[in-house]
Write a structure and sequence with these properties.
Length: 198
């Protein structure tokens, strides 16, 4: 009887090892399938907002703009709120003085201000007020008003993950166009076209 104990233990170990190898192979296969699905979804989401040249376009959306109240960048006692945006088409541009892409798109914002296609507002995202003020004084301020979102409030309520990001808001306070990335020359035409058709 004692002779069979080592053989029994060996048989059980071989069985456990073979089951473990089979389970590892199955798990790796499942993970590969999941990774392929994620890659396919990522590709389709990327293509959704890009044109054939690789530039990012606005994506039509309908998002209720959350109520918000953030400090005004230039006037200490004033607040910038959702009420400032109602009753007209408005554009919000999220930017930061430390953001190189924001600097690259700044001339387009100045052109948007000149063309007056809609009221243009800025929200300085996760920036230091003094740095933002210097940035706008040096490069020109295209905004009617600028809110200071130093703590990333819009990250929580609107999933802002990076800047620049630009929204077109309709008179009812809904985000109707959203651009994650820097504005291009054709972005102005996209906004004009949307406002004209709606």
């Amino acid at each position: 009887m004692k002779k069979f104990i080592p053989l029994t233990i060996l048989a059980v170990l071989i069985l456990l090892i073979s089951l473990a190898i089979k389970n590892i192979s199955k798990t790796q296969g499942d993970n590969a399938t999941i990774s392929e699905e994620i890659s396919e979804n990522d590709d389709s989401e990327t293509r959704q907002g890009n044109d054939e040249e690789g530039f990012v376009n606005f994506v039509e959306t309908t998002i209720d703009l959350p109520d918000f109240e953030i400090p005004d960048l230039f006037e200490d006692n004033k607040k910038f709120t959702k009420k400032d945006l109602l009753g007209k088409y408005t554009i919000i541009n999220f930017f930061a003085s430390w953001c190189s892409t924001c600097i690259a798109e700044h001339d387009i914002l100045l052109r948007m201000q000149t063309e007056a296609i809609a009221d243009l507002y800025g929200i300085a995202w996760r920036d230091i007020n003094n740095n933002t003020q210097k940035f706008l004084q040096k490069n020109g301020n295209p905004f009617s008003r600028v809110g200071a979102d130093n703590k990333g409030f819009f990250s929580k309520v609107a999933n802002i993950e990076a800047v620049p990001e630009t929204w077109l808001i309709n008179p009812q306070g809904k985000v109707v166009l959203r651009l994650k990335g820097n504005l291009q020359e054709f972005s102005i035409d996209e906004i004009k076209s949307y406002i004209r058709l709606h």
